[in-house]
Specification:
This protein is mainly alpha-helical and about 140 residues long. The chain has one domain (about 5-140). It has helices at about 5-20, 30-35, 40-45, 55-65, 70-75, 85-90, 120-125, 130-140, and strands at about 75-80, 115-120, 140. It has a three-stranded parallel β-sheet with strand order 1-2-3. Helix 6 links the parallel strand 1 and strand 2. The longest helix has 14 residues, at about 5-20. It is globular, with a radius of gyration of 16 Å. InterPro entries: DUF6892 (IPR054187). This is DUF6892 domain-containing protein.
Length: about 140
């Protein structure tokens, strides 16, 4: 359904972590501990050379997560911010200093019929080709 994984993450953050419409909330620490990671997660991820990447467990979970049309219809606003909970679940020690979570396609706007506002979208969304025109045509404000 979603073409851009990073756009889907924004939607999941809204539905799972902000609005709590999708339960249970995914926690990467639980997944890593279930795989045998013990103690300091920083040390574990550093030893595995996984500090600044989307962890496969999170990618798989969020890629496979099905979101219903009814859930998508509830999304009236999205927030793009390096401090979103979903980013910390995907890459617990990501520092926000690169383009790891930039949205590169806005094709998925069609999935959100009631989206009206994107907060902080100027940087994360503008990496997508034609972003300004697409947002304007859909009547989506960027604040």
């Amino acid at each position: 359904m979603f073409r851009d994984f990073n756009f889907k993450l924004l939607v999941i953050d809204k539905l799972m972590y902000q609005d709590k419409l999708i339960q249970p909330r995914f926690r990467i620490a639980d997944m890593l501990h279930a795989k045998g990671a013990t103690g300091d997660l920083w040390k574990y991820l550093r030893e595995q050379d996984l500090l600044y990447t989307v962890l496969e467990e999170a990618r798989q979970c969020f890629t496979d997560l099905e979101i219903t049309p009814d859930q998508l219809a509830t999304v009236e606003e999205l927030t793009t911010d390096g401090g979103l909970e979903i980013y910390h679940q995907c890459s617990p020690f990501w520092d926000g200093e690169d383009d790891l979570f930039d949205v590169t396609s806005l094709d998925d706007f069609a999935l959100l019929p009631n989206l009206r506002v994107i907060y902080g979208g100027d940087e994360a969304m503008m990496a997508a080709p034609g972003a300004e025109d697409i947002l304007k045509a859909r009547g989506i404000a960027v604040e």
